[in-house]
Design a protein that fits this description.
It is elongated and about 50 Å long. The chain has three helices and two strands. By secondary structure, it is α+β, with helices and mostly antiparallel strands.
Length: about 110
């Protein structure tokens, strides 16, 4: 049984940053998820995106207009395409040998106090 030639499967979800420290990185048997998926040739990576300029985001909270700038990396809201380019790294040929990683795509937001 193999998955060679299969299209990549991409899951999506949102976890508020305050819950990230409590998410276990290992299964109940204390085996890392990538190791459990190895026999199926499946990589297990995660994108940890910060605030992203989606319609839902903009319509559900007040947004400081200064954070809507499109240049630079710090203290602004990401464009959807910026997060999508990071996802392409994992699901494209560039990510064939990458597994078990969390890629923070938040313009350095985790580096600064909220």
């Amino acid at each position: 049984m193999g998955v060679e030639g299969a299209k990549p499967l991409v899951g999506s979800g949102a976890t508020p940053r305050r819950f990230l420290p409590s998410i276990p990185l290992c299964s109940r048997r204390d085996r890392p998820q990538p190791a459990r998926l190895r026999p199926f040739n499946v990589t297990a990576n995660s994108i940890a995106s910060g605030d992203t300029r989606t319609g839902r985001f903009l319509n559900t909270r007040p947004v400081d207009p200064d954070r809507l700038a499109e240049g630079g990396a710090l203290e602004r809201i990401a464009l959807v395409d910026e997060v999508a380019r990071a996802v392409r790294v994992f699901v494209g040929p560039t990510g064939d040998f990458i597994t078990g990683q969390v890629l923070w795509v938040d313009g350095g937001g985790q580096c600064w106090p909220a």
